[in-house]
Design a protein that fits this description.
Blueprint (H helix, E strand, L loop, with lengths): L9 H9 L3 H9 L9 E6 L2 E7 L4 E6 L6 H16 L3 E6 H6 L1 H12 L4
Parallel strand pairs: 3-4
Antiparallel strand pairs: 1-2, 2-3
Length: 118
């Protein structure tokens, strides 16, 4: 079992996988699933669950809805990002609006940061 695995989050992460947001489904089925890297959905690491995670590149991908732009959400994201930084995990954040309006640009940015394209 990985050192940062949290069995208490297993059922919740499974539920999140079954009930992805439309933006998560779009990114997963129309892009991430097609990459030549293994990407996990709703991956629990420590006390948190990442929307998507690539272990090979130690990269988490988070899609942010409106709650992430409120003061409590901003503070919570800062704490999460610091936790992952201490583990050597890079977090890529995109808003749901970016997914809906700039999908190709988001995909190109992710591919570049994962090293799939240069």
């Amino acid at each position: 079992m990985p050192q940062n695995y949290n069995p208490n989050l297993k059922k919740y992460s499974q539920s999140l996988r079954k009930n992805m947001t439309k933006e998560e489904r779009h990114l997963w089925y129309d892009f991430l699933k097609t990459l030549p890297l293994t990407i996990n959905r709703q991956k629990s690491i420590g006390p948190y669950i990442l929307d998507f995670y690539c272990a090979k590149t130690k990269t988490g991908i988070e899609l942010d809805g409106s709650q992430h732009f409120e003061s409590s959400g901003i503070q919570s994201d800062k704490e999460r990002d610091q936790y992952f930084k201490e583990l050597g995990i890079q977090i890529l954040r995109y808003s749901n609006l970016d997914i809906n309006k700039n999908f190709d640009a988001v995909c190109e940015d992710i591919a570049r940061k994962l090293g799939v394209i240069k």
